[in-house]
Design goal:
The protein has 127 residues and is mostly beta strands. The protein has a single domain (3-121), classed as Immunoglobulin-like. It has no helices and 9 strands. The strands form 2 sheets. Strands 4, 5, 6, 8 and 9 form a 5-stranded antiparallel sheet that branches. Strands 1-2-3-7 form a 4-stranded antiparallel sheet, with no helix packed on it. A hairpin with a 2-residue loop joins strand 1 and strand 2. The mean pLDDT is 96.
């Protein structure tokens, strides 16, 4: 499971292929990714924005930016976690995602927390 730690914020990711929402004839391959964000630092912080860099097997890149995650801007106290699941459709059987979360401590100082690169892959794809 890919994991990254930035300024005490630990981000881990697990992805999976969703065959029942995919249609290779279109082509459309649907993936879920499950993220756990844990504040391992000493100060409370809040997730303000997200940035995703998504690359499919054909080299097509999509960048996604927006507020929060799945409708939330979670505030995490020390040792508190937030988990969520979201989805990514691709036109190829394989791709990668990586990104950052814009985080802000209670004093207003911000930093970008790394979302580690992870693979989106059908069970029969070859990368």
């Amino acid at each position: 499971m890919p994991k990254a730690i930035t300024n005490g914020l630990c981000v881990s990711v697990k992805s999976e292929f969703i065959p029942e929402r995919s249609n290779p004839d279109q082509p459309l391959f649907f993936f879920a990714y499950h993220i756990t964000i844990k504040n391992e630092g000493d100060r409370p912080l809040t997730l303000k924005n997200r940035y995703w860099h998504i690359t499919d097997a054909a080299g097509q890149v999509e960048e996604v930016r927006g507020p929060g995650v799945v409708g939330y801007q979670p505030r995490l106290e020390k040792d508190q976690s937030f988990q969520y699941t979201s989805f990514c459709p691709l036109r190829t059987e394989f791709g990668t995602m990586k990104g950052t979360y814009e985080m802000v401590w209670d004093d207003g100082e911000t930093f970008d927390a790394e979302i580690p690169a992870f693979q989106l892959m059908t069970p029969h794809s070859v990368n």
